[in-house]
Amino acid sequence: QVQLVESGGGLVQAGGSLRLSCVASGRTFSSNTIGWFRQAPGKERESVAAINWSGANTYYVDSVKGRFTISRDNAKNTVYLQMNSLKPEDTAVYYCAADARSYYTRDYLSPREYDYWGQGTQVTVSS
Questions:
Q1: What are 61-79's pLDDT values in tens digits?
Q2: How confident is the model at residue 85, as a pLDDT?
Q3: For the chain, does the N or the C end have fewer beta carbons within 10 angstroms?
Q4: Residue 76 contacts by C-beta under 8 Å, 6 or more apart in sequence?
Q5: Which of 44, 78, 74, 42 shows the shortest CA–CA distance to 61?
Q6: Helices vs. strands in the chain: H and E counts, helices first
Q7: What CA–CA distance (Å, rounded) separates 68 from 42?
Q8: How far apart (Å, rounded) are the C-alpha atoms in residues 77 and 10?
Q9: How does pLDDT run across 8-62, given as a tens digit for each residue?
């Protein structure tokens, strides 16, 4: 059974940092795109960042560019999201997701491209 488990969320003051982790089990995702998404109360799920299978290519939504960094360690089947200079508007439940297709994703920042989802981890940024 494929499972994605996020961790690393918590409460942090504005300007602070958190590092989220997404660990995959049940199969290897070393040939698959992994994305991070978030959903704030009363809002739709939105993309945050994505990374291709090798880690050579990364993609970010404009609101997090320069503050967030996505990376992966395929040997550990783990993807990370380093979040710096956090703002109250970053408050949300953060989800990682994996594209079931190997090596290719048509639209890296579209939730519709992803097949496997974790349960999410809460990030709260206080002002």
A1: 999 999 999 999 999 999 9
A2: 98
A3: N
A4: 23
A5: 44
A6: 0, 11
A7: 23
A8: 23
A9: 999 999 999 999 999 998 888 899 999 999 999 999 999 999 999 999 999 999 9
Beta strand ranges found along 26-77 (DSSP E): 32-39, 46-51, 58-60, 68-73
Q: Are the CB atoms for 91 and 23 separated by under 8 Å? A: no
User: Residue 19 and residue 8: Cα distance in Å, rounded?
Assistant: 6
Which residue matches tokens 């049940």? 26
Collect all residues with Cβ–Cβ distance below 8 Å to 100 and sequence separation of at least 6.
32, 115, 116
Pair 86, 17: CB distance under 8 Å: yes
Count of CB atoms within 10 A of residue 80's CB? 20
Nearest CA to 33 among 43, 24, 42?
24
Residue 1 has pLDDT above 90, yes or no: no
